[in-house]
Design goal:
The chain is mainly β and about 140 residues long. The protein has strands spanning about 1-10, 10-15, 70, 75-80, 90, 95-100, 105-110, 115-120, 125, 130-135. It has a 4-stranded antiparallel beta sheet, with no helix packed on it. Strands 7-6-4-9 form a 4-stranded antiparallel beta sheet, with no helix packed on it. The chain starts with a strand and ends with a strand.
């Protein structure tokens, strides 16, 4: 047994550490069992390979017409929530979209007072920096 004195925040503590010398041998894994493969006849029709899945594209404008005030994504990320709706009157600083980037939720807010003219993204979509999120009219 080893004894140590450890000081934490000016208070000394006497610590005893017990050494264990026993070593346990690793247990061998059971032998794998062979897998029987079914026989395939030559008359089985071959199906066309599946098309690779692609990420959904963000539409240019989901609904509404473009307004004169554009709200763009400051960084790439995932749209977690859309907090505003088309036709809603918003004030400067009101949350329009919540964007998750680097495991943080970022509130994308209205840059000025206005009415939401269009929402250009959907919840769950992955976006790049500079993508048009929404537009406002004054």
């Amino acid at each position: 047994m080893k004894r140590y004195t450890i000081t934490v925040n000016g208070i000394a503590y006497d610590v005893s550490v017990e050494e264990k010398t026993t070593f346990q041998q690793p247990v061998a894994a059971p032998a794998p069992t062979p897998i029987q493969t079914p026989t395939v006849s030559n008359t089985v029709p071959v199906s066309k390979p599946a098309e690779p899945a692609t990420a959904p594209k963000v539409k240019e404008t989901l609904t509404g017409s473009l307004g004169n005030i554009k709200i763009e994504s400051p960084m790439p990320g995932k749209i977690l929530a859309i907090k505003a709706s088309i036709g809603q009157v918003v004030k400067r600083g009101d949350v329009i979209v919540i964007l998750e980037a680097m495991k943080m939720e970022n509130e994308i807010v209205a840059p000025s007072d206005g009415t939401v003219a269009s929402i250009n993204v959907t919840e769950g979509s992955m976006i790049e920096s500079g993508v048009l999120l929404a537009t406002l009219t004054e």
